[in-house]
Write a structure and sequence with these properties.
The protein is α/β, with parallel strands linked by helices. It is 30% helix and 17% strand. The protein has three domains: 172 residues, 3-Layer(aba) Sandwich (Dimethylsulfoxide Reductase, domain 2), CATH 3.40.228; 189 residues, 3-Layer(aba) Sandwich (Rossmann fold), CATH 3.40.50.740; 112 residues, Barwin-like endoglucanases (Beta Barrel), CATH 2.40.40. The radius of gyration is 24 Å and the shape is globular. The chain starts with 12 loop residues before the first strand and ends with a strand.
C-alpha cells in the first residue's frame, strides 16, 4: 500500500475495485465502514458481484468480468473532459499525460457501457465523485490482478490516482490489499525470482557484489529464475525435475488443476515443508514438518508495509522446526553453513543488506512496527509513499488500451465463472477447515447463481449440479443468491473435493505471470 490502513479514514472518497473487503479483509474493512459512517467519506464499489460492502456504498458499478481497463479509462475520459484532473500535479510530477489523454479519448461513457455493461450515466457520476475529491483512496485486491491483463489493470488504477493528484497525500494512494498475512514480507525478502531483499534486482551487478561479499560466495546468478506459473508447465514437459514447496498447496490453488496434477506426477523428486499434510504434501517424496505462526519468533510485514514482531507463544509439536532452521540445516548438509543463532540475527543481516530496512531493529519494533522505507536508525518510517517524488523521479502515465479476457462465453459454455474466498474459510483450507466452528458456517463448496440464471437453467436452491469448463468439471450445490448477477456465477476455491480450480484458466498475464483465475467460461447441468 502507498498509504497506511489508518489513512483510509482520512479519504473523502474511497474507490474499492476487485476486493470483497468485508469477507477477505474483515478487519481492514472496518476502517472503510467507519470512514463512511462517521467521517462522511463517499464509497464507490466496483465489483461483478453485489458483495456485502455495496450495502455501505454510495455507488455500485457492476462491470462485466475482465473489463477493468475499459471502465478505468472511462473514468479518466470523463475527468479530463470535465476538467477535474489535477493539472499542477500532472505538470510537476508526471510524464506521458498527452499519450494517456489520446488513449482515453475514445473511452466515452457510451463506448465503455458497450464493453463493461456499466450504464453511461453511472460512470459519469462515479468519475465526478472521485475526480472532485481532495483525497481519494483506491483499494484493490485479486479481482484486479488475477487476469491476463492484471498488470494493465494495476497501471490503470495508478494512472487514475496520478490524474487526480491522489498520490503522496494522506487519504489518497493506490492500495493493494495483500491476500495473506505476510505476502508483503515474503516479497520484501526476495521471495520473487528476479530480486534479492528490498527489490534489489539480481541483474544489478552492484547488488550481486554486495550479496556475494556478505555471504562469502562468488558467481551468484545474473539471470532471474522461474516464476511458479512457469515451473508447473516445465515439470509437465520434463524440463524441471524436482520441486521444493514451502507453505503452499498448489494441488488445490493452482489453475487448470487437472493439468497441474499431471505436471506434479512427472516430477522425479518433490519436497513439501508445511504445518499439515496438505493435498500437495500427500504427493511428496519428503515432508518436512514446520512450525506455525504461534510457534516461532521473527517478523511479519503487513499489507501497509509495517514491519512487526511475532513472538513464540507455544512449543511446536513433534519434530516440527522453524522454517529458517530447516533451510539452514539443508544448506549445511549441502556444504554451505548458515550460522544463525536466532531470528534476531537473521533480521540484523536483512537490515544490513536492505536499504529500505536499514533503520529498523528489533528494539525499535519491540512494541509498535515501522513502515518501510526506514533508511536510518533515527528515521520514523514512511506511512505515506511518494510525498515529494516517485522512486524514479516523475510518475509515468501508461496509455493502455482495453484487451478482452483470454476466454469468452459461447453457446456451449454460456456463463462466466469467477472465484474467490469466503469469510469463514481461508485459501485452501489447510488451517480453517480443521476448525469445527468455521466448518459449521461454511461446510462445503457451492455455486452462487442469480435467480434469473437459476430459472433459465431449471435449477433450484440446494440441488447438486455439474459445473464444467473446457478444462474440467466438478459437482457442487446450487446457492441462489441476490449477490449474484445474471450471466456470472461464483465458486469459492477452498474446497479440494470440489476444487474450483479444476475449471479455471491457466492463461497468464505476460508481465506478472499471474493466471486468469477471475474469468472463465462454464456450463451448468443437473448432476446425474
Amino acid at each position: 500500500m502507498t498509504n497506511s490502513i489508518a489513512d483510509i479514514e482520512k479519504a473523502e472518497v474511497i474507490l474499492v475495485a476487485g476486493s470483497n473487503t468485508t469477507e477477505n479483509h474483515p478487519v481492514l474493512s472496518s476502517f472503510v465502514k467507519r470512514a463512511v459512517k462517521f467521517k462522511g467519506a463517499k464509497l464507490i464499489v466496483v465489483d461483478p458481484r453485489q458483495i456485502k460492502l455495496t450495502r455501505h456504498a454510495n455507488m455500485w458499478l457492476r462491470p462485466n468480468l475482465g473489463s477493468d481497463v475499459a471502465w478505468i479509462n472511462g473514468l479518466m475520459h470523463v475527468i479530463i473532459k470535465e476538467d477535474l484532473h489535477d493539472q499542477s500535479f500532472i505538470e510537476n510530477r508526471t510524464t506521458g499525460f498527452e499519450e494517456l489523454k489520446a488513449m482515453v479519448d475514445k473511452f466515452s461513457p457510451d463506448y465503455v457501457e458497450s464493453i463493461t455493461g456499466i450504464p453511461a450515466q453511472q460512470l459519469i457520476e462515479a468519475a465526478r465523485l472521485y475526480g472532485s475529491a481532495k483525497a481519494g483512496s483506491i483499494l484493490y485486491c485479486m479481482g484486479i490482478t488475477q487476469h491476463t491483463t492484471g498488470t494493465d489493470n494495476v497501471k490503470s488504477l495508478a494512472n487514475l490516482a496520478m490524474l487526480c493528484g491522489n498520490l503522496g497525500i494522506e487519504g489518497g494512494g493506490v492500495n493493494p490489499l495483500r491476500g495473506q498475512n505476510n505476502v508483503q514480507g515474503a516479497c520484501d525478502m526476495g521471495g520473487l525470482p528476479n530480486v534479492y531483499t528490498g527489490y534489489q534486482k539480481v541483474t544489478d551487478e552492484a547488488a550481486r557484489a554486495k550479496m556475494e561479499k556478505a555471504w562469502g560466495v562468488s558467481g551468484l546468478p545474473d539471470k532471474p529464475g522461474l516464476p511458479v506459473t512457469h515451473m508447473v508447465p516445465k515439470a509437465y514437459d520434463g524440463e524441471l525435475k524436482a520441486m521444493y514447496i514451502i507453505g503452499e498447496n498448489p494441488l488445490v490453488s493452482d489453475p487448470d488443476l487437472n493439468h497441474a496434477e499431471k505436471s506434479f506426477s512427472r516430477l522425479e523428486f518433490l519436497v513439501v515443508q508445511d504445518i499439515f499434510m496438505t493435498e500437495t504434501a500427500q504427493q511428496a517424496d519428503v515432508v518436512l514438518p514446520s512450525t506455525c505462526f504461534a510457534e516461532k519468533n521473527g517478523t511479519f510485514v503487513n499489507t501497509e508495509r509495517r514491519v512487526q514482531r511475532v513472538r513464540k507463544a507455544l512449543e511446536p509439536p513433534g519434530s516440527a522446526r522453524e522454517d529458517w532452521r530447516i533451510t539452514a540445516e539443508i544448506s549445511r548438509r549441502m556444504g554451505y553453513p548458515m550460522r544463525y543463532e536466532n531470528a534476531r540475527e537473521i533480521f540484523e543481516e536483512i537490515a544490513g543488506l536492505t536499504p529500505s530496512y536499514a533503520g529498523i531493529t528489533y528494539d525499535r519494533i519491540e512494541k509498535v512496527g515501522i513502515h518501510w522505507p526506514c533508511p536510518t536508525p533515527d528515521h520514523p518510517g514512511t506511512p505515506v509513499l511518494h510525498t515529494q517524488q516517485f522512486t524514479h523521479g516523475k510518475g509515468v502515465f501508461h496509455a493502455i488500451d482495453y484487451i478482452p479476457p483470454a476466454e469468452r462465453v459461447d453457446t456451449e459454455y454460456p456463463l462466466y465463472l469467477t472465484t474467490g474466498r469466503l469469510l469463514y474459510q481461508f485459501h485452501t483450507g489447510t488451517m480453517t477447515r480443521r476448525s469445527e466452528g468455521l466448518n459449521d458456517r461454511a461446510p462445503e463448496s457451492f455455486v452462487e447463481i442469480s435467480a434469473g440464471d437459476a430459472e433459465k437453467n431449471g435449477l433450484i436452491d440446494g440441488q447438486t449440479v455439474r459445473i464444467a469448463s473446457r478444462r474440467g468439471e466438478i459437482e457442487a450445490r446450487v446457492k441462489v443468491s441476490d449477490q449474484a448477477v445474471d450471466g456470472t456465477v461464483f465458486i469459492p476455491f477452498h474446497f479440494a473435493e470440489a476444487a474450483a480450480n479444476r475449471l479455471t484458466n491457466a492463461a497468464l498475464d505476460p508481465v506478472a505471470n499471474i493466471p486468469e483465475f477471475k474469468v472463465c467460461a462454464v456450463k451448468i447441468e443437473q448432476a446425474a
